[in-house]
Structures are given as C-alpha cells and as structure tokens.
Write a structure and sequence with these properties.
Layout: H1 4-19, H2 36-40, E1 47-50, E2 56-62, H3 65-77, H4 83-96, E3 103-106, H5 111-117, H6 121-128, E4 137-139, H7 151-158, E5 162-164, E6 173-181, H8 185-196, E7 200-209, E8 218-219
Parallel strand pairs: 2-7, 3-6, 6-7
Antiparallel strand pairs: 1-2, 1-8, 4-5
Helix pairs in contact: 4-6, 7-8
C-alpha cells in the first residue's frame, strides 16, 4: 500500500494535469475530466469470454466508445485521473468474479512501456479498484507489437515471454488481471508461466474486452 505522502504526491500530479487543461474523452466537453453522461457509459456490463486455452475471463466493459477512449487516454496520454472511474468498473468485475481468497496478479508491463509512461496500467487500475496486486510476473523476453497480429500470430508472439519472480503465495490460487483482453493470448501466457511455477489461475479479470466477431460471449 502506498504511504500517505506518496498518495498525496500522486493526487497532486493528477490535479496538476487536470488544471493544465482537460477535456472529456467521451464527448470532448472542455474543462472536465469526464462528464456525467460519459461517466454513465462506464457502468459495468459484465462480459464473460474464454481464452483459446479455456481460461475464463470476466470483463467489466466492452472495449468501445467511451470506455475505449478513456483507456487510451490512460495508456497513451498519461491521464491517470481517469483510472479512478475505470477502477470502479474493475472493482465490480473483480467482485463478480469472486476473487476473494485468491492472489491478484497483474499482467506485467514491458520495460519500454514503463519507461514511457512511468506507471504500470494494470497495477494502477487494481489500486484504484481498492485491491492489492502482487507483482509475480515479469517479462522474460521482448515481444513485438500485438496490434496488427491475428489470433495465431499473437499466441506465437507472446509464447514464453513471461516468467515468475518472487515468493509463491500460500495456496497457489491466483486471479490474473489486465486492462484489455483481445484474443486472450497474453492471459494464456500469464497462466502458463504461473502454472510452471506451481500456481493455478482460477480466472482472469479485465477492465474491457474487445468485441469479437462471430464469437460467443455472455453479456449480463
């Protein structure tokens, strides 16, 4: 848990960024972090999908519209204040996934992404959701950009890209958390690395899920 001084510094940075000029990522309304109408679009939808390896994934939101634009602002523009309303949606998803008693493990952030942003997006969202994360996974090798790759290429790109570091938790049951699930290849690689170290991924929880054409997904 961050100290009160660290938390104050973090909030101060966010407030400064807001005062320097923000507009709503959903509708571009000026001088507002997130307008009430767009905030309402972040109400959790409850989306259940499975990865190619069969890992159950519970996502809070579809990766489209206001949710997608807010996530991109956090990841690309340093708008960390938006992690607070997004964290509320993630908190609901973690609760619905019945993560109690499991260790919450974020998907690791690449070194290049951390240097560019100065923070790890999954860990930031978990903290804003009010949960404690355990950094058990770390990159084992570099991977290529996933965005232009298909399902098979994504799986090949991330295969063997993660390793477990640090002490194994008691019980060995974990919930993997990431910001967005697309094909599920990254989550499967995280589950593989954890399994190789004697841990079991009960499920995965993500803030958002990319809509899948022709795939079955249960939305509540």
């Amino acid at each position: 848990m961050p100290s009160s001084r660290q938390l104050a510094r973090e909030i101060g940075r966010e407030v400064l960024a807001f005062l320097l000029g923000a507009d709503c990522p959903g509708c571009d309304a000026p001088a507002t972090l997130l307008c009430d109408a767009c905030r309402g679009q972040l109400a959790p939808a409850g989306i259940d999908v499975c990865t190619p390896a069969g890992l159950r994934v519970h996502a809070a939101l579809p990766y489209e519209g206001v949710a997608a634009r807010c996530i991109r602002r956090v990841k690309e523009d340093g708008a960390t204040m938006l992690a607070r309303p997004l964290g509320e949606a993630l908190r609901t998803a973690l609760g619905e996934a019945d993560a109690g008693g499991c260790v919450i493990v974020p998907v690791p952030t690449t070194r290049a992404a951390f240097r560019r942003r100065g923070y790890r997006v999954p860990e930031l969202l978990i903290a804003r959701a009010g949960f404690e994360s355990h950094r058990l996974l770390a990159p084992a090798r570099r991977t290529g950009d996933q965005r232009a790759l298909g399902r098979t290429e994504r799986a090949r790109n991330v295969a063997g890209s993660m390793r477990v570091t640090g002490a194994r938790p008691a019980g060995g049951q974990v919930v993997i958390v990431d910001d967005v699930v697309t094909t599920g290849a990254t989550l499967d690689e995280a589950a593989r690395a954890l399994a190789d170290a004697g841990m079991r991924a009960v499920c995965a929880v993500t803030l958002a899920a990319t809509p899948r054409r022709g795939a079955s997904a249960a939305r509540r």
